[in-house]
Amino acid sequence: MTFLDTLGIDLPIIQAPMAGVSTPAMAAAVSNAGALGSLGVGATNADGARKMIAAFRERSSRSLNVNVFCHSPARADERIEAAWLERLRPQFERYGASPPSTVKEIYRSFVEDDAMLAALIAEKPRVVSFHFGLPSAERMRALREAGIVLIASATNLAEGRAAASAGVRAVVAQGYEAGGHRGVFDPDARDDRLGTFALTRLLVSQLNVPVIAAGGIMDGAGVGAALQLGAVAAQLGTAFIACPESEADAGYREMLRSDAAHHTVMTRAISGRPARCLRNAFTAFGESVMPAHVPAYPIAYDAGKALHAAAKAKQDFNYGAQWAGQGAPLARALPAAQLIATLAKEMGQ
Q1: pLDDT band at residue 348 using 50, 70 and 90 as cut-offs
Q2: Closest alpha carbon to 234 in 9, 14, 6, 27
Q3: Considering the entire predicted model, what is its pTM?
Q4: Domain count of the chain?
Q5: CA pair distance 39, 22, nearest whole angstrom
Q6: What is the pLDDT of residues 98-132, one digit of tens each?
Q7: CATH number at residue 188
Q8: Residue 113 phi/psi, 5° resolution?
């Protein structure tokens, strides 16, 4: 049995989970087209995850990947949070608003979310994938015993080895080019910033599990190159943002079509963790901020979302979490199923 058989898919293409952008309609269209559709449930609770999975299953009976965040639970620091809100105050005041008086952890990590674990065991998606780290051995065992295929992201060899040793069936090699949140296990540790293809080749040569390439891959040529390097599949995220099924708002889509797509920025200011974003006013603000001054993830995201809401109310989209990878200028506004068919054709399939 090949790894694609294990996933229950026909094409070596995975639509990245992209919490806040991916939708059940997108995932279903991708899966129905022969690739692996994904849902990011890291920013919702167990009930929200169940509803998303149900909405997918109304549209598709094929394989689904459900992605969870495995970051260390946030440590609140009132001093840092108060100082951060004051630092953001001038940004809010541009839009006739004030920062919130306090900020909080807006969603729980899967490492301590028993309700999410129970929901996934009950729903049994074909795949559950981990980002930001790994859950406990007990949680992973429970998912495996439910017949679920486990996958984890890694940004370096040490993380890849940890994931393989923990018993995942495949490792996603997330290169520095990738859009959205960097999957580093420890955001405060040194990041060697390995590119997708160097990392993919390194993991293929060193791990005894399949490797999935992710980061900067936008077309069939990119997928084919990843396969030539030994990856069993490629994971594409930014390629799907412009699809009509995505949750990206009008401002996000407009920015993706603008010059900002040529200048993506890795920033911590929006959410509290490093993430690659289209260049906008928020990333410009973040360029002068030391990491130690930003509240913990996802507490900082509470403030970031409030600032975006204040700006958006005045029709300014420059403070959105407009995650995108370095391949952003190659994005195509195609329906998800048509994009999969196009990718397959470009690969010669």
Answers
A1: confident
A2: 14
A3: 0.97
A4: 2
A5: 6
A6: 999 999 999 999 999 999 999 999 999 999 999 99
A7: 3.20.20.70
A8: -100, 90
